[in-house]
Design brief:
Blueprint (H helix, E strand, L loop, with lengths): L1 H32 L10 E5 L12 E4 L10 E7 L2 E6 L19 E3 L4 E3 L6 E3 L8 E7 L4 E5 L1
Antiparallel strand pairs: 1-9, 2-3, 3-4, 4-8, 5-6, 6-7, 8-9
Length: 152
Amino acid sequence: MKQIVMLEERREFLTQALKLVGGCVCVSALAACETDVLKSSNIAVRYDVSQTSELSTIGGAVKQAFDGQNGGFPVLIIRMDDDDFLVLSSICTHQACEVNLPGDGDPNIWCECHDSVFDRSTGDVVNGPATAPLQRFEASFDKSTETLTITF
């Protein structure tokens, strides 16, 4: 009889331990899913806009990678007007998939992994499952030299 009680106590202990471990794993996974882990490094890079035909017109957009920046993923560079550019991370804030460029027919930015949609003029979430906007990087444009300075 004593052996049966010990087995039941052991089973209860293991059940509770597994619930605790499972809860910790779930909380960790959820925290990793919805975060803007990209932090500013205060590194500025210069990009010659005149070398990219897609950025010669308002609304034009490209993906461009910069060594060691944005977690190794490219950024989206979107020309907003004659002397204003928006620079967004291409990493979806839902589960870190790479988002697409905004299209000609569809002005939004899509993540094909889980169908999150982001606004092309702000990076804000239009439709989830993502709940956080795309990371935005500071950018300034020197029209005289056609140089875009992006601060990561």
